[in-house]
Amino acid sequence: MRQVLNWLSRIGRAQVVLAVLVVAMLNGPGNPRQIGDRLQIALPSIAFACSVLNGSAGEYALRFATMMIAAHGSKHALGQAPINIRPDGGDLGFPSAHTSAAALGASSIVHECISGHPVAKALVVISAGFVGGSRIDSDRHDIWQVLAGALLGWGCDRALRRDTPARRKVVGWLAWAVRPLTALRQAALRLLPGAKPRV
Description:
Elements: H1 2-11, H2 13-26, H3 32-54, H4 57-78, H5 97-112, H6 118-137, H7 143-159, H8 165-191
Helix pairs in contact: 2-3, 2-6, 3-4, 3-5, 3-6, 4-5, 4-7, 5-6, 5-7, 6-7
């Protein structure tokens, strides 16, 4: 591991980020949908690796998990609503979770990993945009579903950072939502013979 860190310190994060993006785009079939699929995984993965190096992996994981819950929760909550229907006729289209993941990853990379490299930042943002475009090109999402996904991903990355009002609201809501489950668990433990509730 130390050798990897030494290697990274010599060549620089921006170069590593760009190399990973190039490998993701060139590794496999070259149609836009498949390139977008690979970038949708590469961008959040690069962002997570940068957050590990920065010592903020838990923070990044919280933002990513919140975004995924919001994206997929919306898809299931909207059911057969017209905004949730994909151009190819399927449902569960609003918002584009591929685009959300790419936008969150790109936002995190730009702000935490390569902030001093304008060309690398532009290429990361263009890569996230390519993911959204590939979803439209393949008839998996329409423009509004992609834009909603991009806003969700970017918003979760920017708003849910440590000590922001939005983050405090989310944490407060989660604490409120979990309270009945905690009480239910404590009651169940009291009813089980020989079980002692943990404090």
